[in-house]
Amino acid sequence: MSITLTTWSLEQTSPDDLRPARVPEGDDITVRRAEVPSPEFSRFLYTAVGGDVHWGDRLPLTYAQWKEIAEKPGAEVWVAYDRGTPAGYVEFDPQDDGVVEIVYFGLIAAFRGRGIGGHLLTEGIRRAWDLAERWPDREPTKRVWLHTCSLDGPHAMANYERRGFRLFDTKVETAEEGETPGPWPGAQV
């Protein structure tokens, strides 16, 4: 079935653009970097978070391709944990000239609606801005950007804007709507 797909590109051009979210109260939420590149863990996060929102672009990748993405210098995955259980993640793709793209961000369905997303995005943006401190061969970050689309969760765009991202491009196209790869039957959505 053909659908109209809108893609919005947003950016920050200074660390001062970040408007932090509050830390969720009452929960033991931590955000940690996955310091050991792991194609298996990256694929798990990708499918667990994106399974119900039409993420499918990476599903055909081979193990070697997942490994290459995970091991790219400056590529990082930051994971939100709720009492030790992965709740969501943010993934960076370091680009030339001090640019960092947030290529994936989201929560597993069971963890949505509790304020974890704003907190995770805040921490992810902070880590994108200080990426060169962990990767000395990189020049300091000058721009952090991302894109979201009309297939993403209903609160995605508002979360990005509340964190200080500004719209710089909009594309509207006709696309074929594919099946979501998950969640599997019986999963909480």
TrEMBL record:
Pfam families given in the database record: Acetyltransf_1
Annotated protein name in UniProt: N-acetyltransferase
Occurrences of domain N-acetyltransferase (ranges): 29-189
InterPro entries: Acyl_CoA_acyltransferase, GNAT_dom
Annotated source species: Streptomyces filamentosus (Streptomyces roseosporus)
Listed GO MF terms: acyltransferase activity, transferring groups other than amino-acyl groups
